[in-house]
Design goal:
Elements lengths: L1 H8 L1 H21 L6 E2 L2 E2 H18 L11 H36 L1 H14 L8 H7 L3 H17 L3 H25 L5 H27 L3 H10 L4 H4 L5 H12 L3 H18 L2
Antiparallel strand pairs: 1-2
């Protein structure tokens, strides 16, 4: 009964609590890519968040004069407004920092991508003469694809708009598919030494592109991820037997300056998430 009595005696505080909960939950769902469908040019989640935020603003500004039931004293009203403002600022900061940090993380992989592609360019000289042309044909276009992905990643970081994100989504999937195709092609190289060099060089690129893909997924809606996965015709399962997981773990551990155990868990989670998403 005290619960009901508190709601009756303090309706504005109770309403504010409900609205803050709605805004917080909506923010978490939005970060996870859950939109609950479209609402005009936006999403249902963004609409709900905007409405709840507007109602919070009305509650905070309403002096509640002339009401038969109200919270006690002006001090209570001021505290209510202060707590609502703090909650909204914390939510906006949490959401903004999360998106910004993910965008920065994507860009942070670009120097490693440049280095890996440069290694690919020089690997043909290490292969048997008969295998070098096969490798060169399989990796044609890596430089162009990498430069385009790097440019779009930096553009999205500078301006995290829907249009730049869409371009980044398209290019990271395009490059990932190009890398998967290359892995399947060089797997047909017969000479063991040549095949080992070829796969190692391409896998370095594959590890980085897949890491960037996983990060892009985190800033994309469920619908966008589904669209990206639909465009991925060569699935991870098809190239997984060709991959050296220890090499991937070592690269991730070095990039994030973390232990091998932590990097291994991170690689496994990312691969499982991408497979579940349809890649």
């Amino acid at each position: 009964m005290n619960f009901i009595s508190n709601i009756w005696n303090h309706p504005r505080t109770s309403a504010a609590g409900v609205l803050i909960a709605i805004v917080t939950i909506a923010g978490v769902l939005s970060q996870q890519g859950i939109t609950l469908g479209k609402a005009g040019s936006g999403t249902v989640i963004s609409l709900v968040t905007a409405i709840a935020t507007a109602l919070l603003g009305l509650l905070a500004r309403d002096p509640d004069q002339g009401s038969g039931i109200r919270d006690q004293g002006s001090g209570s009203t001021q505290k209510l407004a202060a707590w609502m403002l703090i909650a909204l600022l914390l939510l906006s900061t949490m959401t903004g920092c999360s998106a910004a940090s993910l965008a920065q993380d994507i860009v942070n992989w670009t120097p490693s991508l440049e280095s890996a592609v440069a290694t690919v360019d020089s690997t043909a000289a290490l292969l048997a003469p008969a295998d070098a042309p096969v490798f060169a044909a399989a990796t044609t276009g890596f430089d162009v694809a990498a430069n385009l992905l790097i440019t779009q990643a930096k553009a999205y970081l500078a301006n995290p708009s829907a249009s730049f994100l869409a371009q980044l989504q398209t290019q990271v999937v395009t490059f990932q598919q190009q890398v998967n195709s290359s892995l399947l092609a060089v797997a047909r190289i017969v000479d063991p030494a040549s095949q080992k060099h070829a796969l190692a060089a391409i896998q370095a690129v594959a590890t980085i592109v897949n890491a960037m893909l996983a990060l892009v997924e985190q800033v994309s809606s469920k619908a966008a991820v589904a669209h990206m996965a639909q465009a991925a015709q060569i699935k991870i399962a098809a190239v997984e037997p060709l991959l050296d997981h220890d090499q991937a773990v070592a690269m991730v551990a070095a990039h994030y300056d973390e232990t091998v155990a932590a990097a291994r868990a991170q690689v496994v989670r990312a691969e499982q998430a991408e497979i579940q998403a349809g890649f």
